[in-house]
Amino acid sequence: MKVLIIGYGSIGRRHYEVLSDFKEIKIIDVVTKQKLNTQKTFLSLETVDALDSYDYFIIASETNKHYEQLSYLEKHLNNKIIFCEKPLFEVDKNLPIEKNSVYVGYVLRFHPLLQRLQELLKDEIVFSANVACGQYLPTWRPNTDYTKSYSASKAQGGGVLLDLSHEIDYVEWLFGNLVDVKSYQKKISDLEIDSDDFTTLIGITDKNVMVNITVDYISKITHRTLHVNTIENSYTLDFINATLLQKSRNSLEQVYSFSNLQKNHFFEKMHTSILNKETVCCSYAEAKSVMQTIKKVQEQQ
Fold it and tell me: Which CATH number fits domain 108-261: 3.90.1210.10, 3.20.20.30, 3.30.360.10, 3.10.129.10?
C-alpha cells in the first residue's frame, strides 16, 4: 500500500510516525515545501508523479487549504480512501463527494472511555449533556510562538470553535444532530490573535437532548469534560485524567479508568478503522453536519 501525506507540520509528522508502523504500508511520500532527507517529497499536489498509484491520502495541511486539496483529489481520483484532518473546512462549503471514500479526523471517537460511555448509553434515555474544554493557547504547542500558529489566524481557519470542533462531533455522534442552536463566539482575552478564543452554545438535538458546549483558548487550568444526565444515571467523563464516573439515582457509583494511554493510540485506532472499512471514524456526511452546526454559530457572531 502506498500513502501520500499532504502537509508536514506537527500533525502531518504524527500521521507519518503512526502509519510507518503499519505492515501493509510500504511507501509513504509527502507533499511539502520542506526539504526532507528520508522521504520522497513533492512541492504540490499538481507535481505528484502517478497520483493514481497511491491508495491512501492524508490531508494534513492548514484548514483553509482542505477544500482546494480535497476538490483536486475528488476530481482526479476514483475509488480511493481519503482522510482529511479536522475541521473539514474553515467555513461550510459545498463539495459533493461521489467517487471516493472520505473520512475526517475526529480522533476522540476512539477514546476508550468515550466508546465505553456510548455503550452504557445505548439503553438509556438521555436528558442533557454538558461539555467543557479549555487550554491556554500559548501552552498548546511547546517551543512554538502561538501568535504565528494557524490557530491565531482567522484567515487560516484558526479559532477555538474550529480547533475544538471535536466537542461538536462527539456530541452529535452520541446524542444526534444539533437542530436549534443559540451561541456566542468572541475574542475576549488579551491574546495576540485575531481568531475567536471563547465560544459557548446551547442547543437541542434531533434526539431531544439538551446540550451545552463551552470551549476556550484562555483557561490556564487545562480541562476537557463531558457530563451526561439520563433517567437512571449521571456520568462524568474526564478526558485529561482518563476517568469515567457513573452514579445512579440510588447513589451507587462505578468508576472506569484507562491508564497508560499512548499519545498515538487514537490515531492508530482511527487509521486501522478506516483501512478495515469500519464505521466508527467520522464520515464525510457527519463532518458536513459538524460544519453546518459551526455555520449556525458563525452566523450568530
Answer: 3.30.360.10
